[in-house]
Amino acid sequence: EAQVTQNPRYLITVTGKKLTVTCSQNMNHEYMSWYRQDPGLGLRQIYYSMNVEVTDKGDVPEGYKVSRKEKRNFPLILESPSPNQTSLYFCASSSGAGVTYEQYFGPGTRLTVT
Amino acid sequence: AQKVTQAQTEISVVEKEDVTLDCVYETRDTTYYLFWYKQPPSGELVFLIRRNSFDEQNEISGRYSWNFQKSTSSFNFTITASQVVDSAVYFCALSEAGFSRGDDKIIFGKGTRLHILP
Fold first, then answer.
1. pLDDT band at A2 (very low <50, low <70, confident <90, very high)
2. DSSP structure string for A12-33
3. Which residues make Cβ contacts (< 8 Å) with residue A1, sequence separation at least 6?
4. What's the burial of B91, exposed, middle or buried (CB within 10 Å: 0-12/13-18/19+)?
5. Is B29 helix (H, G, I), strand (E, B) or coil?
6. Size of interface A-B (CB pairs under 8 A)
7. Which of B102, B104, B107 sits opposite A31 (nearest CB)?
């Protein structure tokens, strides 16, 4: 089954404790992206990757890191999480040349930073 | 800079009524793409439609239809004969075809929460 998976689905952590949210897709998509969803703010793009070893900032990259060492994986790293990073995070991949095609989203990761 | 405005934060209609969700966008590019995504109460994000800037034909898919008007920079979404299962948050999004210049971002509107009342 074609899908985007994220782990963990739920995470409660404390300020400053490094964490990684994994994202994997099995569709051989080149484009992958991370978003955060906050009430009243919609979806905002954090980082995206157009291919292996190619990543770039979205609109809200501060406090996040990503890497793309393999085509299927695109982990999101929070080196020192803070409470303002409490949010619902979505990973997505795109079937075509970049984000001008439809995106397939993972199920979301709800992160709480205390 | 690109921008997407969904002015309707929340809408409630009674089942079987028609409802239109508004989406207004701003872009300086001549080539761009518009999308609608649905987020039902279960939380997943589901692709509904993609439209490029050169194709102003309206699209109909069952009870769903989309009206793209470049003259007013709008890409509105209409649900005909709404059903309770249409209750969801709907997001409009804009992507400028920037991959040729190495830039491939997408901007989402803040979403419209639609309640279909039985």
1. confident
2. EE-TT--EEEEEEESS--SEEE
3. none
4. buried
5. coil
6. 67
7. B104
Q: Least CB-CB distance to B99: which of A44, A98, A107?
A: A98
In angstroms and rounded to an integer, the radius of gyration of the C-alpha atoms of chain A is: 13
What is the torsional sign of CA A27, A29, A34, A39? negative
Residues of B with CB below 8 A from A43's CB?
Answer: 45, 91, 93, 108, 111
- CA–CA separation, A66 vs A64, rounded Å? 7
pLDDT of residue A1: 85
Mean pLDDT value across chain B: 92
Mean per-residue pLDDT, A44-67: 94
> Rounded to whole angstroms, what are the CA distances from A70 to A29, A49, A53?
11, 11, 8
> Tokens at residue B112, please?
């419209």
The answer to whether A99 contacts B95, with C-beta atoms less than 8 Å apart, is yes
Q: For B9, name the nearest residue in chain A, comparing CA atoms only.
A: A40
Q: Is the Cβ of A114 closer than 8 Å to some Cβ of chain B? A: no
Any idea which residue has 């994994």 for tokens? A22
For residues A46-53, average pLDDT = 92
Chain-centroid distance of CA B94 in Å reads 9
The confidence band for B98, taking pLDDT boundaries of 50, 70 and 90, is low
